[in-house]
């Protein structure tokens, strides 16, 4: 509920709106549920007053709801995926997403990934702000994660499942 209150506060809309978000995603599941809820709330509120937010502004405002309004230490990748969807190559600095590019993976690779992946709820909750608050990232570890992500993107673009999996195993 606090998220919806923060979205209302950010937009300045106070009267004549009823907002409700329903989801089967359990808070802390690590699936970007709060980012998706923030994006949905802001998009609905904007549409209710005829505002036409561009996609990048919607990402920024959703991040603001979580970081400034809810005081969560969070990234901005979940909001970017919630707004833009699909396979994305995101680049970051300490402020958040600096560039975004759609990744064009061939349909046969997408089908192979869909057929071979399974989402499992371990029952263990991981609120991103808690995880980030405990994390200590060395420059070496960060560089390795960035390199692994680059390998995955190159594998996706090349249509090579072995390259995608090799990049995933690096991280």
Description of the structure:
The mean pLDDT is 86. The longest helix has 20 residues. 56% of the residues lie in helices and 8% in strands. The chain is mainly alpha-helical and 171 residues long. A two-stranded antiparallel ribbon has the order 1-2. The two termini are 35 Å apart.
Core attributes:
171 residues, mainly alpha, two-stranded antiparallel sheet, 8 helices
Short recap of the structure:
By secondary structure, the protein is mainly alpha-helical.
Compute the number of strand runs: 2
State the helix count: 8
Span between N and C termini?
A: 35 Å
Q: Largest sheet, described in full?
A: 2 strands, antiparallel
- What integer is the average pLDDT? 86
Strand content: 5-15%
Low-confidence stretches: none
- SSE-based structural type: mainly alpha
- String of helices and strands: HHHHEEHHHH
What is the C-alpha radius of gyration, as a whole number of Å?
Answer: 18 Å
- What strand line-up does the widest sheet have? 1-2
Helix amount:
55-70%
In one word, what is the shape?
globular
Tell me the layout of helices and strands.
Blueprint (H helix, E strand, L loop, with lengths): L1 H10 L21 H16 L6 H15 L7 H8 L3 E6 L2 E7 L4 H10 L11 H7 L4 H20 L2 H10 L1
Antiparallel strand pairs: 1-2
């Amino acid at each position: 509920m606090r998220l919806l209150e923060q979205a209302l506060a950010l937009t300045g809309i106070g009267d004549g709106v009823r907002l409700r978000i329903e989801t089967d995603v359990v808070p802390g599941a690590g699936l970007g549920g709060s980012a998706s809820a923030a994006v949905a709330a802001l998009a609905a509120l904007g549409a209710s007053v005829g505002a036409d937010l561009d996609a990048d502004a919607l990402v920024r405002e959703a991040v603001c709801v979580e970081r400034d309004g809810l005081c969560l230490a969070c990234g901005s990748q979940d909001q970017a995926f919630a707004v833009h969807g699909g396979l994305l190559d995101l680049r970051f600095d300490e402020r958040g997403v600096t560039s975004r590019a759609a990744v064009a993976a061939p349909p046969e690779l997408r089908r192979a990934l869909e057929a071979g992946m399974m989402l499992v709820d371990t029952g263990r909750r991981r609120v991103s702000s808690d995880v980030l608050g405990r994390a200590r990232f060395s420059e070496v570890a960060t560089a390795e994660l960035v390199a692994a992500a680059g390998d995955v993107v190159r594998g996706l673009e090349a249509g090579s499942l072995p390259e995608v999996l090799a990049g995933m195993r690096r991280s």
